Automatic annotation (TrEMBL):
<protein>
    <submittedName>
        <fullName>ABC transporter ATP-binding protein</fullName>
    </submittedName>
</protein>
<dbReference type="GO" id="GO:0015833">
    <property type="term" value="P:peptide transport"/>
</dbReference>
<keyword id="KW-1003">Cell membrane</keyword>
<keyword id="KW-0067">ATP-binding</keyword>
<dbReference type="InterPro" id="IPR003439">
    <property type="entry name" value="ABC_transporter-like_ATP-bd"/>
</dbReference>
<dbReference type="InterPro" id="IPR013563">
    <property type="entry name" value="Oligopep_ABC_C"/>
</dbReference>
<dbReference type="Pfam" id="PF08352">
    <property type="entry name" value="oligo_HPY"/>
</dbReference>
<dbReference type="InterPro" id="IPR050388">
    <property type="entry name" value="ABC_Ni/Peptide_Import"/>
</dbReference>
<keyword id="KW-0813">Transport</keyword>
<dbReference type="GO" id="GO:0005886">
    <property type="term" value="C:plasma membrane"/>
</dbReference>
<keyword id="KW-0472">Membrane</keyword>
<dbReference type="InterPro" id="IPR017871">
    <property type="entry name" value="ABC_transporter-like_CS"/>
</dbReference>
<dbReference type="Pfam" id="PF00005">
    <property type="entry name" value="ABC_tran"/>
</dbReference>
<dbReference type="InterPro" id="IPR003593">
    <property type="entry name" value="AAA+_ATPase"/>
</dbReference>
<dbReference type="GO" id="GO:0016887">
    <property type="term" value="F:ATP hydrolysis activity"/>
</dbReference>
<dbReference type="GO" id="GO:0005524">
    <property type="term" value="F:ATP binding"/>
</dbReference>
<comment type="similarity">
    <text>Belongs to the ABC transporter superfamily.</text>
</comment>
Amino acid sequence: MSHLLEVKDLEVKFALRTGDLTAINGVSFSLHKGQRMGLVGESGAGKSVTGFAVINLISKPGFISGGQVIFNGRDLAALSDEAMREIRGNQISMIFQDPMMTLNPVLTIGTQMVETLQAHRHITRAEAEAIALEKLQKVQIPSPEKRLAQYPHEFSGGMRQRIVIAIALLTDPEIIIADEPTTALDVTIQAEIMDLLQQLCESERTGLILITHDLGVVSQVTETIAVMYAGKIVESGSTEKVVREPRHPYTQGLIKALPGSLQPGAKLHQIPGMMPTLTDIPPGCAFNPRCTLSQRICREQEPPFITIDGDACKVACHMVQPDASKASL
């Protein structure tokens, strides 16, 4: 099966007066048509920067300094701004964590949806309104005809996020990148939005990259998972395998921190320390100062990304033994 999206050795740097800082360091992953993937890690791990880099939307002083982002056979990292505009928001859509940052407060929902469609397709206003109506129905907005004439402030947070998803679906994209799409919502609405997103991806055969710190959400929605730490992927594989049998100490720590993993009343597990800043990434394995298994080799040598369990999982940890498969860089 050919890949719809293939990210190879992606590197993103930020140019500062003191020199370039590496934010993303050699990230690689792939996505098939209709596949749902989770990109997980704490704040500062590089998840959102990776998502923005996929659609070549890194703001200065950031820039893509290496690697490839192959989408339908084209390297997005090498395309001009004009060529990228044909793909961004059209073939690849993005959903942000705060819907009010996406929606224009002074335009009606209908106007915003019609303008989005007409920016990418040569269609009449009536045709655009018909498509907008259809997408609002798909995301289960009640009385969609009335809603087209309303403004963003007239909707609840959950409804606004549904509208943002409807806008992302307008052009029938092949991939949706969802960056913490439910952070601003309460738990019951979060579950509804994630169920909706999953159903839509399945029915439309749309690929999904779900960026989140919440392993609970990822385990319910995605098929594959990549765990990020300090700008690198430290573990990847099928979601079921990684969640059930995490190999990297960082992934183990994230899973132990989930409320559902403990007996009622037990104290939540916490990974000691903090994610390192870009200026202070330690030598060797970046996780070593926070790791209970850390040895001398962890402090001195960067662990290779090795294949384990046949081809089901990959992990970058000196304390995990490879199987018969060879280490892959």
